[in-house]
Amino acid sequence: MTKPIIEVKNLAKNFGDNVVLKDITEQVNPGQVIVVIGPSGGGKSTFLRCLNLLETPTSGEVDFNGENLTTLDPKRVNELREQMGMVFQNFNLFPNMTVLENIKLAPMKVKAVDDAAATKRAHELLKQVNLDDHADTFPSNLSGGQAQRVAIARALAMDPKVMLFDEPTSALDPEMVGEVLNVMKELANQGMTMVVVTHEMGFAKSVADRVWFMADGFIQENNTPESFFSDPQTERAQDFLSKILM
Amino acid sequence: MKKKWVLFLALVIALFTGATMTGTTAHAASDDSLAQVQKKGTLVMGTSPDYPPYEFQATVHGKTKVVGMDVAVGEKIAKDLGVKLEVKSMSFDSLLVALQTGKVDMVISGMNPTPARKKNVDFTHTYYQGGYSIVINKADKGIYKNKDSFKGKTIGAQTGSTMYNESKKQTTDTTVKGMTSVSDLILGLQSHKLQGVAMEKPSAEAYVSNNKELASIPSDFDLSASDTSASVAFKKGSTSLVAAANKSVDQIKKQNLVNKDYLPAAGKYLKTNTVNTSMLHYWKAFLKGVEYTLIITVCSVFFGFILGVLLALARMAQGGPLMTGLRWLATAYVEFIRGTPMMVQVMFVYFGLGLVVNLPALMSGIIAISLNSGAYVAEYIRGGINSVDKGQTEAARSLGMSRGYTMRYVVLPQALKNIWPSLGNEFITLIKDSSIVSIIGVSELIFQSNIVRSDTYRGVAPIAVIMVLYFILTFTASRILNFFERRMQHD
């Protein structure tokens, strides 16, 4: 049995009186692509953000490679975050830096990579996301799809073991969704471990190893995409699928 | 004579330093003042060089220096003690505080030994006995004879001075108007806002001999000797120093040195001074003013910015009791600084801190203005940091960047861009507000212009000059700021 890279145990999170996550226990194995789907407000994004401690869990633990993040000192958490790239719904590129600088910043400051090496690696990554001709562009001059691909390249620049995607296509115009999903598919094919929160059912069907259906603060169903979409086990999932597949 | 010891100032200092000050005064009981001065080798004299012929600035061999009969008196005392004289300029109001806080060893500034002043400092015997005159326009010479001729008219005198008080007491149906500087009073006279100006006789004569449109008439005030005499002031309790100085003062009196040597010498300086009253002739004085204004502004902006960043971060600190305490402290600091006048802060740093460490006026001014500016900049920066989207922080943290790196490389640069116009405003405000340090005698533009005004007996021209100079400074600054603002535009 392979050792899981991410292990979530009895994770719970509330914002004041608002209970968002209730007792989640799941695990992600290396190389797996997990797609988290479910209705809005079901806690998907909060769950994802608990994995790299952007949100501090109220109780329970999140283990990365066997280390419990919730008990580590901030310095070690920073080190482990390097290994978990994250891509946001709104890209969150640094607007005051060029595409190339966006990608180079963290490797140079955090890993002390020298400028030449960082630049070389950044160009490689830009080629991987088909944007090498935009290296010196500022983010405000990029389309949404381009910006999101830069954001993926930026996260990859830290050579992460896991990539977390928080609704990466939700803020995009429909015609740009494809270019981003293609990059993600390619990444999955290369064997990257991925946890993807999305509403793209097509992506879930074709790329995911497991689908986690999340609603009301629980993972209601953990299934293969084939069985989940053809034969959902829970009533909650049936209800959800009937609404979106119309 | 001259302005009285301003009680307000004493109050401010006393309020802040209270116990410390009484402590120092009590200490002086064991008197080694003379030995200390001799050990130092210099005697520091404080004076307010805007009062010819007592003390004023003159250009000697291309260099600006303080001259006048009081300086001659100071030189005599220093020579008799076998030490060097060092002259420190500051506003009259600040002189006695400077003496009490050890910024200067003695004050010679046409100061008369009134009972109120005697409570705070020790005086020598008087070295000069003057009298009062009233300066009028020459055209009115037939109309006014003495203080009683001004019924229904207005006469002017320096605010808080003995002349001012006596003019009020000893005239009937006459309006007495007070102004801070004698140059302003003369200007008021020439523009017919005033019909006469009461001042000391030597000063009156200096003004009359330098301005053909003025004339002087006797005042006929009824005055006691202590109101018209001038003495040297020392720190309370410096008995040995006063005794030594008294020997010199007695010699001056006995040999009539003031009238025989000092006044004529001062007169000569006055003449060389006023041969050429064109503003161009004083370009060096103005240049020095610009230089100091820039030094103060640039240093204060630099340190104020650093302090502002630290304060802003402290105000946003979150976590345990330590962080809460830090936040509370920073908030209290910002509120307190914003809630007190910058002028009071400048005086407090110079005189108040002066009790603990002896800081030069320029450094005190820079410290005070930096401390002040930091409070305002902190608020701008806090607003700037809050204006940066939270997603930026999350993106940076998700890449493994620490809180500090995130702030430094991601949030602050963007915050800075957002608040650049506000910071620019602060910079330009500082250029103008740096004028406040003129009260502690830093030779920035305002201070220099006051000196040029009293040197040239011209009221308006120097003001016009510094107005233009200030505008050139602020305009250039705003152009430079705009340039950088454009360079930061990426979207």
From TrEMBL, chain A:
CDD domains: ABC_HisP_GlnQ. PROSITE patterns: ABC_TRANSPORTER_1, ABC_TRANSPORTER_2. The keyword Membrane applies. It is found in: Cell membrane. Keywords: Amino-acid transport, ATP-binding, Cell membrane, Membrane, Nucleotide-binding, Transport. Residues 6-241 form the ABC transporter domain. It holds the Pfam family ABC_tran. SUPFAM superfamilies: P-loop containing nucleoside triphosphate hydrolases. One of its GO terms (molecular function) is ATP binding. It is a peripheral membrane protein. Gene3D superfamilies: P-loop containing nucleotide triphosphate hydrolases (3.40.50.300). One of its GO terms (cellular component) is plasma membrane. Belongs to the ABC transporter superfamily. This is ABC-type polar amino acid transport system, ATPase component. It comes from Levilactobacillus paucivorans.
From TrEMBL, chain B:
The chain crosses the membrane at residues 292-314, 348-371, 460-481. Keywords: Amino-acid transport, Cell membrane, Membrane, Signal, Transmembrane, Transmembrane helix, Transport. GO terms for cellular component: ATP-binding cassette (ABC) transporter complex. It comes from the Bacteria. It is a multi-pass membrane protein. One of its GO terms (molecular function) is transmembrane transporter activity. Residues 1-28 form the signal peptide. Its main location: membrane. PANTHER family: GLUTAMINE TRANSPORT SYSTEM PERMEASE PROTEIN GLNP (PTHR30614:SF20), MEMBRANE COMPONENT OF AMINO ACID ABC TRANSPORTER (PTHR30614). NCBIfam families: HEQRo_perm_3TM (TIGR01726). Belongs to the binding-protein-dependent transport system permease family. HisMQ subfamily. This is ABC-type amino acid transport system, permease and periplasmic component.
